[in-house]
Amino acid sequence: MAAITKNIEKTMDCGLGTEDIDGILGFSYVADAIEHELRVFWHFTWRDWSAAIIPGTMCTIAALRALDSTLSAGFTARSVLYCLLFLYAFDIANQINGIAEDQINKPDRPLPSGRVSLRGAYIRWYASTAAYLAAGAAWGVLPWTALWVCITICLTFGDGDKHWATKNMLFMTAGSLCLLQGAWGLVAPPSARETRWTVLLSSAFGILASLQDLRDVEGDRVAGRRTLPIVLGDNFRWVMAALTCAVPAICWKLEFLHYSHVLVGYCGAALTLSTFYMAYRILRGSSRKYDHKTYMILTYIFCGCVAVPVVFP
Fold it and tell me: For residue range 29-55, what is the model confidence (pLDDT) as tens digits?
C-alpha cells in the first residue's frame, strides 16, 4: 500500500487529476485481487496438479493427435481451463470437509492456516462449480462435468470419503474417468477404443490411489475414516505392493497388445520398471514425507500412461 501511495504522489507531481488517480487506484486494486486469487488457487491445488491438470491436458492433446489435427492453441487452452476448474472445485470442497484432518496432516492448507475463511471457501466453491458446469455445457461435455460435481458432493459433503471402498476404488476411479473422458470430449466424442483405455487406466489408478492414505493415517483417524491403511494395518504395504506389481501385467494384457508399434513395448517395459520401483518404495516407506513422494510417483506414472497416445496416436 505504501508503494501505491508513493506512486500516487508522483503522479500528482506530474499534474494528473483526480480521475486519473482513481483509475490508478482501481487498476491496482484489481491487480492485487487477481494476484490474491491466484495465490489462493495455488495453495488449494498445488499438491494435485499431476493427478488432474497435467493428465487432463495431455488427454486433449492425445485426442488432437488421434484425429490428425494440428495442435490447436485454442483447444489446449480450453483443456487447461477445464482441468483447472475440475481440480479447483473439488479441492475446495474436499478441504472444507477436511479442516480437522488438515490441522494435523496438512496445516499449511488455506483453511487450517487461516489464509482463507470458511465463508470465503464456500463462495469460491459455488463460483468455481458454476463456472465448471458452464464450461462443460458450452464445450459439449456436460454429462461428465455434472457427474464429477455429483461425485464431489457425495465424496465430500455426503461422507463418501469415510470408507476406503467409496473414497478411492469408486470415486477416484469414476473421477479419473470423468477427467479423461471429458478432456478427450473437448475435441471429439471418445470412441469405444478410447473409452476402454480410459476405463482401464482409471480403474488401475483408483485401486492404487489408497497409497495417498498412507501419509494421512493420523488425521484420518481423527476424521473417523476407515481407509485401507487403517483397516489392514501392517498388512497394507504388502497388499498394495502386490497390487502395484500386478498392474503392468493387466495393462499389458488388456491394452498394450492392441498396439502394433514396436516402441509401445518399450512403454510397457517402462511402466513395469516404474511400478516395481514404486512397490519397493511402498515396502520401504517409514515416514509421511517418504510415503507422500511414493504417491506422487504414482501420479507421475498416471501422467506417463496418458502420454502414450500422445506419442503413439
Answer: 788 888 999 999 999 999 999 999 999
